[in-house]
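User: Design a sequence. Structure:
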């Protein structure tokens, strides 16, 4: 991109604002070097990464790059035989842990955020380096005894000698024969050796070596001869400890240096992820959206009766300049129809013409840099090969050029560089010279860029260009509006209408004598006056229509807010209903359990008394049915206003589909990464990523699958065997049937379960006399689709149930 244009459109200021959200230096460096890409694939990838980061921060607001540090200088030093400090190693360890944590996070989130996962998956993690640093360096930045066996021995010996030395000196300062000569009863150090403070008057009374004296000379610091050997040992061990610590740090530095490439790559990838997060945070700050980026066609298209359209697209709705105060900036709509690629903006000074040009140019640069743009949804813009802008006072004092000459020099440079896939922005075209010649030159320049099919936005004060834009195919007039009541610009942009001439109206409002104003009006061509009056009426009607749209939009927003509030309240009521029903179910299940215990005791009593059990079996069957009924999960009632979307978070009570089992169930327990789903009488625990919301009402009502294909149609990539077969359910209840009939039903059920790809099924046959159970298990033992089978567990029906595992199809 043209460096002068980047500066003119204030692109570096945008980068400064984005850099404020960077978490560490490498990210800030990447942002400073960020340039708009002319490659649409790269720009779209950047936009996708930013959009994923925006969604990621919404669902995981605490996600950061952790404790990553800029350790590139330390790594460079280590790779050149330098010695790092323990603090340096802690920074490296923290960076490695941050990379590992990010990698693990995106391993879990990869399906939802594939673009960022693609970046994170390239992150190298030096094997064992974290553990190596942890064994040697404590969290407080100190070398641990475990750093080497030799260091552990040295420190052990050092501790023993130190304890002996202090013990001996402690005995000396409590010896009455010595304490009478001491200035104070304490042990201190001089030059790394332990000494006693002896009063100078008693020099020689305690035999030893004088190491120092106080400033007043009243105290001598002596090392008693009896501890010289211990002090020597202590000092020697200290030196050995220092040398061993240096050797360890050197060896550890060498090991870190060997991983230089991997660690530098790791830092770079963490910075890439942080860059996407910084872009996302900036997008949230300025309330930006992801624009639709449009590729230039190989050839444009001819405009009826005019020039050749380059194929560019500029459709920006409610666009705002990101550097202006969001509370006061007036959004503009710049929407060029398919046959327009040049826009001529007219209007009063300070009316917003230049801001409009800068907004379009800057948003185009941001879009091609992967930054979301402050505009309304549905905005789209082409990816330009280059963007050129000539805006503002380009007078060069150094070159002694006038304002006009400065503009012309810039325009000559732009014309030499621009092509069909460029965007050219020219402010105050033809200004700074004789109005007649300036208008002629402006018209000639505009004709030239139109003939070259270059997308162009210009502002001007020349009325001749209004007529030119009106009569030339491919060009459209636009204007910024002026309020004659307040004599202030409104900053609204109107496309399709040229700006009105407000000179006479303003003069009249400011108190110019009416005779002079009327005289001036008499000098104007009557046709021009009629056209001006008609233009004023059109503007007035547009203002009324705009105000009506604003009021309608405000009413719609109020309705949406009320609907959102109502939906939230209904969800709260549904949560309360589920909680009450769950408590009631728990209470009922406890009473049923007590009843079963009573029935078991009654059965035992009747059996001992040799009484018939027929009546009791009927009651037990009813209790069993009642228990089964209470085991059914409570399903969340859908809120009428709420669409069941596949991207909506799963909630308790939702009906979901388990992809691995190709069956549906109700969510009975929900964790951060896992959930429990009840399928029939079975409870299955699985990861959140393995389920999706079932019963998409929109898809079902339209008779189409979630991917848009007709229901029942074979989708590409699906196996012809089983993947589209309907699931017969996870369990089959054969109770109350004759053995022959039950086996026939079992055969059909197992075939359907096998085709549906179910991993296992639950066969309910009851306990009874055991004949049906035996027949079922014999059939399962010889069935070709069954891998193994076993009785149900204590919470699954016990011996009245058989769990059968199916072979993979």
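Assistant: Done.
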């Amino acid at each position: 991109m043209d460096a002068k244009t980047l500066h003119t459109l204030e692109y570096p200021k945008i980068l400064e604002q984005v850099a404020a959200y960077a978490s560490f230096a490498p990210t800030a460096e990447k942002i400073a070097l960020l340039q708009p890409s002319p490659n649409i694939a790269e720009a779209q990838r950047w936009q996708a990464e930013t959009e994923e980061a925006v969604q990621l921060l919404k669902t995981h607001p605490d996600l950061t790059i952790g404790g990553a540090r800029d350790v590139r200088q330390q790594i460079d030093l280590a790779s050149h035989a330098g010695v790092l400090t323990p603090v340096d190693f802690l920074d490296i360890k923290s960076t490695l842990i941050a990379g590992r944590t990010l990698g693990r996070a995106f391993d879990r989130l990869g399906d939802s955020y594939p673009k960022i996962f693609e970046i994170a998956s390239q992150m190298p993690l030096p094997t064992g380096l974290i553990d190596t640093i942890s064994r040697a360096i404590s969290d407080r930045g100190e070398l641990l005894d475990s750093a080497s066996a030799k260091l552990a021995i040295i420190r052990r010996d050092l501790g023993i000698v130190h304890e002996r030395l202090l013990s001996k000196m402690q005995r000396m300062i409590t010896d009455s024969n010595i304490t009478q000569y001491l200035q104070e009863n304490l042990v201190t150090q001089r030059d790394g050796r332990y000494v006693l403070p002896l009063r100078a008057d008693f020099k020689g009374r305690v035999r030893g070596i004088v190491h120092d004296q106080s400033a007043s000379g009243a105290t001598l610091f002596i090392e008693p001869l009896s501890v010289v050997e211990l002090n020597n040992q202590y000092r020697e061990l200290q030196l050995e400890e220092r040398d061993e610590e240096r050797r360890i740090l050197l060896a550890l530095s060498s090991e870190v240096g060997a991983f230089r490439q991997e660690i530098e790559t790791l830092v770079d990838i963490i910075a890439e992820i942080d860059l996407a997060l910084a872009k996302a945070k900036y997008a949230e700050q300025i309330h930006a959206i992801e624009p639709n980026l449009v590729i230039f066609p190989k050839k444009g298209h001819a405009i009826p009766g005019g020039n050749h359209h380059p194929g560019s697209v500029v459709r920006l709705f409610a666009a705002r300049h990101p550097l202006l105060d969001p509370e006061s900036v007036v959004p503009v709509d710049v929407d060029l129809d398919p046959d327009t690629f040049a826009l001529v903006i007219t209007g009063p000074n300070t009316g917003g013409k230049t801001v409009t040009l800068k907004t379009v140019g800057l948003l185009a640069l941001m879009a091609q840099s992967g930054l979301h743009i402050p505009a309304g949804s549905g905005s789209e813009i082409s990816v330009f090969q280059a963007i050129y802008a000539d805006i503002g006072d380009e007078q060069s004092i150094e070159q002694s050029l006038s304002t006009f000459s400065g503009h012309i020099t810039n325009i000559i440079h732009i014309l030499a560089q621009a092509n069909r896939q460029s965007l050219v922005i020219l402010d105050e075209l033809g200004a700074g010279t004789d109005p007649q010649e300036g208008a002629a030159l402006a018209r000639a320049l505009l004709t030239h860029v139109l003939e070259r099919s270059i997308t162009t936005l210009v502002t001007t004060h020349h009325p001749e260009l209004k007529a030119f834009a009106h009569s030339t195919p491919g060009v459209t007039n636009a204007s910024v509006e002026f309020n004659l009541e307040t004599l202030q610009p409104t900053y609204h942009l109107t496309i399709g209408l040229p700006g009105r001439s407000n000179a006479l109206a303003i003069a009249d409002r400011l108190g110019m004598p009416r005779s002079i104003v009327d005289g001036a009006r008499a000098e104007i061509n009557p046709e021009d006056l009629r056209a001006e009056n008609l233009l004023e009426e059109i503007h007035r009607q547009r203002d009324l229509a705009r105000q009506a749209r604003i009021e309608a939009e405000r009413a719609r927003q109020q309705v949406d807010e009320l609907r959102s509030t109502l939906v939230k309240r209904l969800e709260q009521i549904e949560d309360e209903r589920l909680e009450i029903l769950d408590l009631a179910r728990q209470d009922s299940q406890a009473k049923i359990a007590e009843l079963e215990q009573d029935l078991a005791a009654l059965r035992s009593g009747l059996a001992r008394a040799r009484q018939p059990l027929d009546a009791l079996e009927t009651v037990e069957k009813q209790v069993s049915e009642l228990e089964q009924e209470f085991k059914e999960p409570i399903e969340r009632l859908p809120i009428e206003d709420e669409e069941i979307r596949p991207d909506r978070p799963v909630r308790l009570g939702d009906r979901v589909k388990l992809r691995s089992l190709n069956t549906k169930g109700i969510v009975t327990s929900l964790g951060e990464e896992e959930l429990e789903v009840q399928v029939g009488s079975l409870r299955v625990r699985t990861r959140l990523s393995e389920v999706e919301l079932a019963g998409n009402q929109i898809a079902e009502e339209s008779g189409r699958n979630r991917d848009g294909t007709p229901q029942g149609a074979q989708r590409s990539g699906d196996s012809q065997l089983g993947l589209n077969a309907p699931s017969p359910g996870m369990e089959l209840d054969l109770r109350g049937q004759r053995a022959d009939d039950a086996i026939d039903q079992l055969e059909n059920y197992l075939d359907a379960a096998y085709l549906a790809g179910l991993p296992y099924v639950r066969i309910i046959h009851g306990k009874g006399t055991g004949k049906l159970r035996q027949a079922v298990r014999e059939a399962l033992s010889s069935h070709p689709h069954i891998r193994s089978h076993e009785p149900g567990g204590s919470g699954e029906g016990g011996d009245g149930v058989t769990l059968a595992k199916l072979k993979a199809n």
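Residues 394-401, 641-646, 696-724 have pLDDT under 50 and may be disordered. The longest helix spans residues 526-608.
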